[in-house]
Design a protein that fits this description.
Layout (H helix, E strand, L loop, with lengths): L1 H5 L6 H29 L2 E2 L7 E2 L3 H8 L1 H34 L5 H13 L2 H11 L5 H8 L16 H26 L3 H9 L4 H12 L1 H16 L3 H6 L11 H11 L3 H30 L1
Antiparallel strand pairs: 1-2
Length: 296
């Protein structure tokens, strides 16, 4: 009786551990264990079939010294602009416009802009590959309005192939950012805008002083999701260009596939995967730290 009186309220701690045990087992079996095995493979020279040999950190040195592998990260950074920066700016602009103006069929436009998010990326890639064909709809449109000089094989052009893939990422990501920002704006009290208007604030000042600071949490979520999508993109590149022309559109995920399954360099591929995982982790932590600091 005395022991029961001295015990803290609630279940014993051992019972609490039992509650989280299934989740810990699933995490360890399907995430932690594969990650550890990947890190182990990255220290060996292995073609995926025969015997392996110890390579130490040579595979990691290859990731940072081989131009093709290093270039893949540069291409991923370019895609961050198209996948994250442009969609966030467009999403803010569209959300600010929709929240101020009374638009007929607003729900329809919202669904249409969000639709690319629910379409499988392989379908998106095939559709846009048809659009970018030399005799596809985009070049036909340019020729019909007298801009035939701009028509080109977009995905075969060394200058325009990567931006062409990036534009597809912009098309997909803008709807997600728009929905997030509209949800955030719906929580801002209308009294703040009315008070700002009484003080003579215009639309731009209202946006800068009220809307933007209130959306820091949504901005952090949108940037986190879109930056991760840019860094780990694979399906768009694989279906649209297969990394070409040359290596102009290769990205880290595609190089992981290329080295592991086509070139038989499993050690290099897993080292590249570990570096990519660290880059994604650091980017996520930095974005959330900045977002949390702004909310204090």
């Amino acid at each position: 009786m005395a022991a029961a009186i001295g015990r803290r309220p609630g279940e014993p701690r051992r019972v609490a551990y039992l509650y989280i045990l299934p989740a810990v087992l699933v995490f360890g079996l399907f995430i932690l264990f594969p990650l550890i095995r990947t890190a182990q493979f990255s220290l060996y020279e292995w073609n995926g079939l025969g015997a392996s040999s110890w390579a130490g950190f040579q595979n990691y040195r290859d990731v940072f010294t081989e131009p093709q592998l290093r270039g893949a990260f540069v291409h991923a950074l370019v895609l961050v602009v198209f996948y994250a920066v442009v969609p966030v700016l467009l999403g803010l602009l569209l959300a600010a416009t929709m929240s101020r103006a009374v638009l007929r069929g607003l729900g329809f436009f919202r669904v249409v802009l969000f639709l690319p998010q629910v379409i499988p990326m392989v379908v998106v890639a095939i559709a846009w590959r048809q659009i970018y064909e030399p005799n596809g709809p985009l070049n036909d449109l340019l020729r019909s309005v007298g801009l035939g000089a701009l028509a080109r094989p977009w995905l075969g052009d060394y200058t325009w192939a990567l931006p062409s893939v990036g534009i597809v990422g912009t098309w997909v990501g803008t709807g997600l950012c728009l929905v997030l920002f509209l949800a955030g704006m719906s929580r801002i009290p209308r009294e703040l805008y009315e008070a700002a208007r009484l003080d003579g604030a215009g639309p731009f000042r209202e946006f800068r002083a009220i809307t933007l600071p209130s959306l820091r949490g949504e901005l952090a979520v949108a940037l986190t999701l879109t930056v991760i999508a840019a860094l780990k993109t694979f399906d768009l590149v694989y279906v649209m260009t297969s990394g070409g022309p040359g290596t102009e559109t290769t990205v880290p995920s595609y190089q992981v596939y290329n080295n592991a399954f086509l070139l038989g360099r499993v050690g290099t591929a897993t080292a590249l995967a570990i570096v990519l995982t660290l880059v994604v982790f650091v980017a996520t932590v930095l974005i959330n730290r900045v977002g949390e600091r702004g909310q204090r």
